[in-house]
Amino acid sequence: MSRRVPEFALVTGLLLGLSTLVSGVVLAGDVVGTSLLAALVSYPFVAYAVSRDDDPTTVMPPRAILAVGVCFGLALFVASLLDGPSPATALFGLFAGLLVLLPPAAYAVRFGADVNPLSPRTTVFAGVVAGLSLLVVGLLADAAAYVTTSALLVSLSAAVYGTARGVRFDARTKRAAVAVGVLLGVAVVAVGVARSEPLGDWLAAATAVTLAPSVYYALTSAGFESGRRRTRR
């Protein structure tokens, strides 16, 4: 009976997600919003199934799950553009796509899909650069609300991936990164004040720049890692 629990949770999550998606699209016509709600409903069941199964790859091959996540994310990005292409809608579509893509990507990384052509260190660098670039684009497009979260997701995901693949930074380097993040956050706010613009977007960008290294430091600290190991036991 315990063997069937993960599969039952998986089927339940997929059925609930699919019914939410179909009913929402038919009744409301909002493809992107309904898809995000469907993912919110189904992903916890899938995560439970993965955590309770000794070998979830027999039912959910990592590369296939990654491919489904990529297709789902691209579909939401394209659907967001159908409402009227603009930088703001494109950035919202990117945000929605990342939300549905990253959990399947994390699963694929955890269970060895091994499809990333870049080295772990290069991946970390590319993720940080992509996150900073997103913040700049978001400020220029007046869409920092979505872009702030997207930048955090991209940069932290790349950094955590690098850590899982053996990239290590000593505590001194991490503390320096936190200090640099704080200084950059202050600088971003100062630029917003100097431009005499509403500070909402600038504060959001500054928050992302400040939080990213701090959250990474917390996630990769020795205390957090040892606590996570005790929880697994």
Question: What would you say this structure looks like, in words?
Answer:
It contains 9 helices and no strands. By secondary structure, it is mainly alpha-helical. It has 2 domains: 1-115, no CATH class; 117-233, no CATH class. The radius of gyration is 19 Å and the shape is globular.
Provide the residue-averaged pLDDT: 83
The 3D shape can be described as globular
Query: Roughly how many Å apart are the termini?
Result: 23 Å
Strand content: under 5%
Could you give a short account of the major beta sheet? Answer: none
SS-derived structural category: mainly alpha
- How much helix, percentage-wise, in residues? over 70%
**Which H/E pattern describes the elements?**
HHHHHHHHH
**How many domains is the backbone divided into?**
2
* Uncertain stretches of 5 or more adjacent residues: none
Q: Work out the helix count.
A: 9
Number of strand segments: 0
Could you tell me the radius of gyration in angstroms? 19 Å
Which quaternary structure do these chains form? single chain
Transmembrane segments: 34-51, 63-82, 88-109, 121-140, 146-164, 176-196, 202-224
Keywords: Membrane, Transmembrane, Transmembrane helix
